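Worked example 2:
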Amino acid sequence: MGEIRRLTKLATQYEPQFAELVMGHSIKEAEHERQLKQKTLAELQARDRELDNLFEHIYEDNVTGKISDDRFAKLSIKYEAEQKEVSAKITALQNELDSDRSKAVTSDMFMASVRKYTRARKLTPRMLNELIEKIEVHQAEKIDGKTVQKLTIYYNCIGNIEIPDLDKLPENNVSLHTRQGVDVHYAA
């Protein structure tokens, strides 16, 4: 709830900066993901062509007698299985890239959701479903005698963003004691 309050405060009091942060972040993240997928797709397509060439060579080697029929059979089964797997991955990646292109992520969609919860007093399942895609809970660690556990929040439409330190947001080094044994710290 504390993070959602910080997010809504940033979104309402600093709307232009928030919109820039959200759009810049989501565009950068989407572009980075797209580039990784494009690179993987190119590598898979290159491997697919390579497998065609390998199969052609082992066929020629079998015809000329350089390799036995048994060896040819084993290699052709291996190459065909790998090529089938590579083709499936290529199709899946192309579908993902097409799907990514069709999604238009805007800060307005997220802003509309955020505005609804500016005065929220308690966390509801609906609020969580609308604002948060997922929360990663990392392994707890002992630091200076205190147990510290990192949480990474991924918001819908924009992913994980670091809320910048702004004057009106909670002060640096604010501690909240949420329940026994759990402390939340906002440090610079």
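Residues 2-186 form one domain. Residues 15-64 form the longest helix (50 residues).
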